[in-house]
Amino acid sequence: MAMRPGTPTLKGEVCSALRTILDGRIWEDLYKENLSGLVGDKNPPGRPDLTECKGY
């Protein structure tokens, strides 16, 4: 996700949405629905790390 520097409100909203997605089964469902066909793999890889979201 790209965003302009100096937009902490937007970054906070994006980080909140990503946490919601990664906290449940949403990540696996979104991956299978949108990406698995593109990479030829039915199982999602490990969950992304939210290091950029620390403090938001």
Describe this structure in words.
It is a single chain. The chain is mostly helical and 56 residues long. 52% of the residues lie in helices and 0% in strands. It is built from three helices and no strands. The protein has helices at residues 8-23, 26-34, 36-39. The longest helix is centred in the first third of the chain and has 16 residues, at 8-23. The radius of gyration is 13 Å and the shape is elongated. The two termini are 15 Å apart.
List keywords for this structure.
mainly alpha, 56 residues, 52% helix
Instruction: Give Rg in angstroms.
Output: 13 Å
Oligomeric assembly: single chain
The largest sheet is:
none
Task: State the separation between the terminal residues, measured CA to CA.
Answer: 15 Å
Helix content: 40-55%
Uncertain ranges: none
The count of helical stretches stands at: 3
The tally of strands reads 0
Strand content: under 5%
User: How confident overall, as mean pLDDT?
Assistant: 87
Shape: elongated
- SSE order in H/E notation? HHH
Which structural class fits the helix and strand makeup? mainly alpha
Question: TL;DR of this structure?
Answer:
By secondary structure, the chain is mainly alpha-helical.
What's the layout of helices and strands?
Blueprint: H1 8-23, H2 26-34, H3 36-39
